[in-house]
Amino acid sequence: MPLIQLVIVLVVVGVILWVINSYIPMQATIKKILNVVVIIVVILWLLNVFGIIGNLSTIRIGK
Questions:
Q1: Closest CA to 21 of 38, 4, 43, 42
Q2: 61: confidence class by pLDDT, cuts 50, 70, 90
Q3: For labelling, which of 49, 51, 58, 63 has a CA lying 20 to 30 Å from the CA of 6?
């Protein structure tokens, strides 16, 4: 993935998260949970893009 595409994806995710936090009325706890989930997903995606972790489709949850 080219670096410019990576930066564009990160900016778009950031802007979407900012719009949700600014303009959609929610409880503060729900906003915090949403922010944490989005940050964890973005970190996992970045680790996968840079090849630090293997293919995410091989990760199994449960039995």
A1: 38
A2: confident
A3: 58
- Answer with the residue of higher pLDDT: 29 or 56: 29
The average pLDDT across 14-39 equals: 94
Burial of 4 (0-12, 13-18, 19+ CB in 10 A): exposed
Residue the block writes with tokens 């972790």: 53
Helix (H, G, I), strand (E, B) or coil at 61: coil
d(CA 57, CA 20): 28
Report helix, strand or coil for 3. Answer: helix
Q: Say whether pTM exceeds 0.85.
A: no
